Hints:
2 domains; NAD(P)-bd_dom_sf; NAD(P)-bd_dom; EC 4.2.1.47; GDP-mannose 4,6-dehydratase activity; NADP; 15 strands; UDP-galactose 4-epimerase, domain 1; about 350 residues; 10 helices
Amino acid sequence: MKTALITGITGQDGSYLAELLLEKGYKVYGLMRRKSKLDFGNVEHLKNEIEFIYGDMSDYVSLVNALKNSKADEIYNLAAQSFVGTSWQQPIVTSKINALGAVNLLEALRVIKPESKFYQASTSEMFGLVREIPQRETTPFYPRSPYGVSKLYGHWITKNYKESYNIFACCGILFNHESERRGKEFVTRKITEAAAKIKLGIQEKLELGNLEAKRDWGHAKDYVKAMWLMLQQDNPDDYIIATGETHKVREFASIAFKLLNIDIEWIGEGAQEKGIDKNTGKVLIEVNPKFFRPAEVDILLGDPSKAEKKLGWTRKISFEELVRRMVESDYKMISNEVGM
């Protein structure tokens, strides 16, 4: 039986990866921060199938203990302060978790079990002010947020440990991947939750930032399969995981509302743009400049051809299906909460 240690196991990606590994017969260990109130997050339904180890990415000793206890064959480092917006308000915490946390875990691996295979969750936000479209594994990085910068350190320190200590280490440069389990602070989940609440009459309108921002959105369930595939190869390598499609925030919102039989008509430009219900003329979506990034990333579009060719990876869930799943999940959950 293979063993795997997942950091960030209670998050979106961690939960889907845990499901995948359990299905494949792995013994799964999950690193969990000790809190005053026990919270299993997205792995609540798996809590009896996972062995949890208390630890913290900023505490090297606890990571050493986690590796000693798990004796993991595969280590997936998914732990992160992952909300880009928060990284401007908490740049030091973001760096401690995303950058120093990665090197803490790599150093623990080097000392305790250097033969383990290591996966580092890199991100398309490292491309930032993009140097070419689409972005490939060879595209130069230009991060535009403390989050992107911190992740770039984690990316490069992983490559450095691979080359310095002959560690089997892979970086997955994942483009935006969402799901029904996405945190409510992320724009995609913010849209689908608001659309459901507006449809149910318990919210008046939705405020968004840059409607022109273009992202390459896929479903997290598809993307965690790529993580696993990377560690099953004979040789470690880095891969972009993406759909090869880009969509604007405005389009995501239009589709989400349309799925609830609300047709949105867009009027105005820039900060004055509004989304209006075609049937009622009511303003349902407004732009609020407070949600603009201090340094914007205008477009992210990945080229997944290397992963498709070498890993045999393909996505199964389309953009439209992703939005549908998120909308239906939020509508059902909110309806149950309010007794409708």
